[in-house]
Design goal:
It contains ten helices and nine strands. By secondary structure, it is of the alpha/beta class. The protein starts with a helix and ends with a helix. The model is unreliable at 1-20 (pLDDT under 50).
Amino acid sequence: MSSFAICVSIFRMAASAQGEATGRVHIGTSGWGYPTWKPAFYPEKTKQKDFLRYYASQLNAVEVNYTFRHMVSEKSVTSWLAETPQEFRFAIKAHQTITHIRRLKNAAEPVQRFIESLKTLDSSGRLGPALFQLPPNLKCDVGVLREFLSLLPPKLKATFEFRNESWFADHVYTALGDHNAALCIAEDEERQTPDVSTASFSYYRFRKPGYAPAELTAKSDKIRELSAQREVYAFFKHEEDPQSAVWAADVLKRARS
């Protein structure tokens, strides 16, 4: 093989690897229906019914928090799919019955209903991870966690946000890893989850009220680095201020560059 052909082959391999990594990066916010995001994020004349379509032109994933109190309907999912491109992903927050009422115990029936509600997203190839956010007063019980994990379909990407520090322990990470479930790396002004990898994908929740340019650059670099080996999902806080959406779009652009 000539040196020119070798160079072309190397270039194509590098381009292919970069393309694969780019496809592993999924960044967005935890919601999209905010008129106050105009005009900083949504163009001034954008109608609310067109918010998701525009959102999906700037970001490639969203974390749906509506499902914490309401099971998602087939009608809603069909509409979401029609308004977003094939590569767009929907991460879904688990219903409060599972995490806050049953607190992971005796949860087979609500888990089944939750999984059923995700079937259309799943069959379309557009389902991202399912987020199980536990209440701050729920202390570590790895036996309960293991029993709960056994209820989940193996193909479901499950991520757990623990808000009590007792969960940040090696035996919990082992339990998650045994089921390819991710530790949700969440941060806000009061806490920071240890950045421990327990699954074949990573899941971040960025909830601070503000981020300096250097912090956003560091996050972009970290996500780009991780995406060489795994899928990465990252979501900024949903709020009336459009800044979180602007940050997300910036980080996505830089992480995919």
